[in-house]
């Protein structure tokens, strides 16, 4: 299995797999709408109650990807706060460009004083190299990124220490049984060592409450259509297999025996519905942690 490679080590393949694979089945528009509505209904009130409108508002985005969620946050915050510093961290340069372009377009049209700072690289490198890691933030967002930030408690504690008093950290997590069980049952996958049987949202809640932070959570159930995953001729199926296993070109590099076992395992965790499509559930958690 030495030929298997970590998907995150191949930036071009990761972008292709994420944008043209997983994004096609992930109901991203539904999740974005739900998170945006929750932000506007809950987080904005906390922010406007806690901080004066004419103070500089500092926002840190962790693992922002294309930045669709963070752009909505900026637009909502810009409707109230007159000065915003937007700091964004993302290791994938290609995905990052989308957020940069959209944020620049919004900034040029918005009347608030808006300053964006971009850091391309992992969060650990931002912590160690960038002076903006020493700033205090009103709001920190981590949308589908806490899986990749290293030791959970250490990273979470560091981020919370960067919040101002009354600051907020908003986290969105996806916990798909099929993906988690794939790693737990197939330890030959390159990144299987990162996955435990624990619920990440439960771990974050436990650490938060131990440190005296207030946590509120909203749960969403999202249905994933994995039909193409079981089609050997499907290019989308190839990309879904890579995403689920975090392995670049899995179907070309894993043995036939391993692939057959994976396909059988995945079928056991999907339901074939009346239309013939193969579907599974992903549980989304929107978590707001108040300092």
TrEMBL record:
InterPro entries according to UniProt: SAM-dependent_MTases_sf
Record the organism. Strongylocentrotus purpuratus
This protein is called Histamine N-methyltransferase
């Amino acid at each position: 299995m030495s030929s298997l490679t970590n998907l995150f080590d191949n930036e071009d393949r990761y972008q292709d797999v994420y944008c043209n694979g997983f994004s096609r089945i992930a109901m991203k528009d539904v999740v974005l709408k739900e998170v945006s509505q929750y932000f506007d209904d809950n987080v904005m009130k906390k922010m406007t109650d806690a901080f004066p409108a004419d103070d500089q508002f500092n926002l840190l985005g962790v693992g922002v990807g294309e930045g669709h969620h963070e752009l909505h946050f900026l637009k909502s915050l810009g409707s109230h706060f007159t000065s915003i510093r937007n700091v964004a961290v993302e290791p994938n340069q290609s995905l990052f460009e989308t957020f940069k372009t959209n944020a620049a377009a919004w900034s040029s049209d918005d009347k608030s004083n808006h300053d964006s700072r971009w850091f391309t690289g992992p969060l650990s490198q931002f912590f160690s190299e960038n002076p903006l890691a020493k700033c205090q933030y009103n709001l920190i967002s981590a949308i589908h990124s806490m899986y990749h930030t290293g030791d959970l408690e250490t990273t979470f504690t560091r981020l919370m220490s960067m919040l101002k008093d009354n600051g907020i950290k908003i986290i969105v997590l996806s916990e798909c049984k099929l993906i988690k069980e794939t790693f737990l049952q197939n330890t030959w996958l390159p990144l299987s060592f990162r996955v435990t049987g624990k619920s990440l949202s439960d771990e974050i809640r436990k650490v938060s409450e131990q440190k005296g932070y207030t946590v509120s959570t909203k749960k969403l159930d999202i249905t994933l259509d994995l039909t193409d995953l079981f089609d050997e001729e499907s290019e989308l199926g190839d990309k879904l297999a890579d995403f689920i296993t975090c392995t670049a070109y899995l179907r070309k590099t894993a043995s036939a025996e391993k692939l057959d076992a994976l396909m059988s395992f995945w079928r056991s965790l999907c339901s074939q519905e009346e239309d013939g499509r193969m579907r599974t559930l992903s549980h989304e958690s929107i978590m707001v942690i108040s300092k």
